[in-house]
Specification:
Layout: H1 16-35, E1 39-41, E2 46-48, H2 51-61, H3 63-83, H4 87-95, H5 97-121, H6 126-161, H7 165-200
Antiparallel strand pairs: 1-2
Helix pairs in contact: 1-2, 1-3, 2-3, 2-5, 2-6, 2-7, 3-5, 4-5, 5-6, 6-7
Keywords: Membrane, Transmembrane, Transmembrane helix
GO molecular function, one term: transmembrane transporter activity
Protein name: ECF transporter S component
Length: 206
């Protein structure tokens, strides 16, 4: 569980350490988002590594930190869809700004929850625990993001392109395989050594 020291009679949302970590990882997310280094353009959507600071934050500093950093990830993803949307999210923007904001932001906030809960409940060697959390959380992120798109604008998207909803599901499944698997592998390779180093320095969820 996340343990945060509080003064008698007071409830503290986050410790100073958690706020510091959240600010630092949010800054990294902002940098990656503003420069575009966090997005990898593909044919119909952008692959991303912006989820990595969120996972690191959740495993190293707790659920709240992960959710805050995830929100920053989602916010920059949303801003990017307004500036240079992928072919897929261009439809979401044209259909509804609110729908686009939900699709971009909410699944990214949930990365923090998923990563924290996975790490908390896995009972395996620490290195494997971190790696599995990073890989599985990345796959879950892809599923949550594409699932949100399908649930909110899947039917209008199918109608606009003259295809069935089943074909939309097939498209989402294809993107999950093409984008999600490489993203998951990269996530495991990057997150694991960074988190292990942070743990050795004393930054770890208790």
């Amino acid at each position: 569980m996340e343990k945060v020291k509080t003064l008698p009679g007071q409830h503290q949302f986050m410790s100073v350490r958690q706020l510091t970590v959240a600010g630092f990882l949010s800054a990294i997310t902002i940098f990656l988002g503003l420069t575009g280094y966090g997005f990898i353009p593909l044919i119909i959507m952008n692959a991303t590594i912006l989820h990595i600071p969120t996972i690191i934050g959740s495993i190293s500093a707790g659920r709240r930190v992960g959710m805050i950093v995830g929100f920053m990830f989602g916010l920059f993803s949303f801003i990017r869809t307004l500036q240079a949307p992928s072919a897929l999210l261009m439809f979401a923007v044209q259909y509804s700004i609110v729908a686009d904001a939900f699709i971009c932001i909410v699944p990214r906030i949930m990365i923090g929850v998923v990563a924290y809960e996975l790490y908390k409940h896995l009972k395996i060697r620490e290195v494997a625990r971190v790696a599995v959390t990073a890989v599985v959380t990345t796959v879950c992120h892809t599923v949550m993001f594409l699932g949100s798109f399908t649930a909110i604008v899947g039917m209008p998207y199918a109608e606009a392109h003259g295809i069935t909803l089943a074909n939309v599901f097939n498209i989402m499944a294809g993107i999950t395989v093409v984008n999600g698997i490489p993203e998951a592998i990269v996530s495991g390779l990057i997150v694991t050594p960074i988190v292990m180093a942070l743990h050795r320095s004393g930054l770890k969820v208790q």
